[in-house]
């Protein structure tokens, strides 16, 4: 099923066990409907079963667990009751063979397993689950998506369900169809999000999903939707929470869930009337995928020792390797002095026999160390020749901390996939676009377009730039160097709010932008503070 050399058993199983206070809360919700049968499809050590068995009235529980060692723990833990049936099986296999009665309730913390770690049989079952329920299947989809869909198939009408899910539910494009599926199948849907993830050893943020299946005669009514953002362990009584309008069911992401209805209406107005699409002036693609950065990224000293100066290209490999607005000759010189790996070995157009002896020895030593056996290298005709190397106009940082960054390429550099490569549409002024990128409107749109991770990181992929907006101005106009220098100076000093204020002011006064920066700055602050804090 898996290559255990590539990931820990915990990650491959996808299991991160649920804290007691969350387990108690989930069961409290489900138990309000007094179910006689409950499914726990990824039981782990039984943490979600514990509160069920502590009640006065105990329903029948069917617990599915992949790992035999964990299954034995559950049996031992609940040996005093006959109400817990433990099945040591892969959930997908059990599901494909199950023909019993539908369950009246469910609690679940589905496994977070990437597609590449699933067996071929699991992939086929997962694909069948999704297609049968009207969802598309692709290689991006994580196991938890099909897990949720399959679990709901096994629920009786009006059953209550409670999940711990990654916030990918709100933030990745492939979860769009799952959100639509949930709104179709559930008469009630409540989302509880956390300022800090309850799973401290996870990079992924989590949320709670609590729902009730539609009754037999209910197929067309609107879903009662609720959302609560909580601090620490202050979980709400859902009966005391007022329903809200659900986010746009057709939206690729639900990041706007954290804004009020009024702010969402403002954002939609600004996007429609006061901005233009980033994709109308620029296109983004992933950076160079080397397959082995340790081999292909070289310091200046290595370039000299390998006699490789005719076979390298300036490289932007890390965010710390560039400050300000541009990657210049001075930037390269500073990185050389810091002994950074700022040169990319590019041998695409070279014959091996014509390479310097030192460079050929470097390649041979890498082969002896089996560097060339990595998947992305062994599928190449010549493993040491990186395909798709081209020089972009600018770089867009992929994973963002305090502030997104777009860097003008003034030294014919390339980048690893830490940065995306940006090409500008012919005729536009690249410097003006770079300047406007730091407006509060654009930074706000990036917060809504990206995917958040625990720890406050924001990831923006090339496809996300389709939802990034720029102020609606004429990007064929020029911009003075003094304005760029002022912005560059503010960014280098880490004065990000001042930098945004400066850009908003210049675009409003001198370029006719009319997007109400006081509003966009306020909404930006809400989104950024929630992510970083």
From TrEMBL:
It comes from the Bacteria. Residues 68-195 form the Type II methyltransferase M.TaqI-like domain. One of its GO terms (molecular function) is site-specific DNA-methyltransferase (adenine-specific) activity. Keywords: Methyltransferase, Plasmid, S-adenosyl-L-methionine, Transferase. The keyword Methyltransferase applies. The keyword Methyltransferase applies. It is an enzyme of class 2 (transferase). This is site-specific DNA-methyltransferase (adenine-specific).
């Amino acid at each position: 099923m898996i290559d255990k050399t590539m990931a820990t058993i915990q990650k491959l199983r996808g299991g991160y066990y649920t804290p007691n206070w969350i387990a108690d809360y989930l069961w409290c919700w489900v138990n309000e409907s007094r179910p006689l049968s409950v499914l726990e499809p990824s039981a782990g050590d039984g943490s979600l079963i514990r509160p069920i068995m502590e009640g006065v009235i105990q329903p029948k529980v069917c617990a599915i667990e992949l790992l035999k060692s964990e299954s034995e723990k559950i049996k031992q833990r609940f040996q005093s009751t006959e109400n817990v049936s433990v099945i040591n099986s892969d959930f997908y296999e059990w599901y494909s063979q199950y023909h019993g009665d539908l369950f009246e309730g469910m609690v679940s913390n589905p496994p977070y397993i990437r597609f590449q770690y699933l067996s071929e049989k699991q992939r086929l079952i997962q694909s069948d689950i999704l297609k049968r329920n009207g969802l598309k299947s692709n290689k991006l989809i994580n196991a938890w998506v099909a897990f949720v869909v399959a679990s709901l198939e096994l629920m009786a009408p009006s059953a209550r369900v409670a999940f711990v899910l990654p916030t990918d539910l709100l933030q990745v494009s492939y979860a769009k169809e799952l959100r639509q599926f949930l709104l179709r199948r559930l008469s009630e849907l409540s989302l509880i999000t956390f300022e800090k993830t309850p799973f401290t050893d996870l990079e992924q943020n989590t949320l709670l999903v609590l729902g009730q299946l539609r009754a037999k005669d209910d197929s067309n009514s609107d879903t009662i939707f609720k959302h609560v953002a909580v601090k620490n362990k202050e979980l709400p009584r859902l009966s005391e929470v007022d329903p809200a309008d659900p986010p746009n069911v057709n939206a690729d992401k639900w990041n706007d869930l954290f804004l009020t209805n009024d702010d969402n209406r403002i954002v939609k107005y600004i996007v429609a009337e006061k901005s233009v699409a980033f994709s109308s002036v620029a296109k983004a693609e992933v950076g160079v995928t080397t397959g082995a950065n340790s081999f292909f990224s070289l310091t200046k000293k290595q370039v000299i020792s390998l006699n490789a100066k005719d076979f390298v290209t300036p490289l932007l490999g890390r965010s710390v390797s560039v400050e300000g607005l541009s990657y210049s000759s001075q930037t390269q010189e500073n990185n050389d002095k810091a002994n950074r790996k700022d040169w990319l070995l590019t041998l695409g157009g070279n014959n091996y026999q014509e390479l310097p002896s030192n460079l050929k020895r470097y390649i041979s030593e890498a082969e002896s160390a089996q560097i060339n056996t990595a998947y992305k290298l062994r599928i190449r005709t010549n493993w040491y020749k990186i395909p798709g190397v081209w020089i972009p106009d600018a770089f867009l940082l992929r994973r963002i901390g305090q502030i997104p960054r777009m860097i003008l390429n003034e030294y014919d550099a390339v980048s690893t996939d830490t940065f995306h490569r940006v090409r500008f549409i012919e005729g536009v002024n690249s410097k003006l676009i770079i300047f406007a990128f730091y407006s509060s409107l654009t930074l706000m749109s990036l917060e809504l377009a990206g995917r958040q991770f625990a720890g406050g990181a924001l990831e923006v992929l090339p496809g996300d730039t389709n939802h990034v907006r720029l102020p609606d101005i004429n990007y064929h106009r020029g911009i003075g160097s003094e304005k760029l220098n002022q912005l560059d100076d503010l960014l280098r000093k880490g004065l990000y709010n001042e930098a945004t204020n400066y850009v908003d002011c210049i675009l409003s006064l001198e370029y006719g932008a009319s997007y109400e920066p006081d509003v966009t700055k306020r909404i930006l602050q809400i989104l950024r503070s929630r992510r970083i804090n």
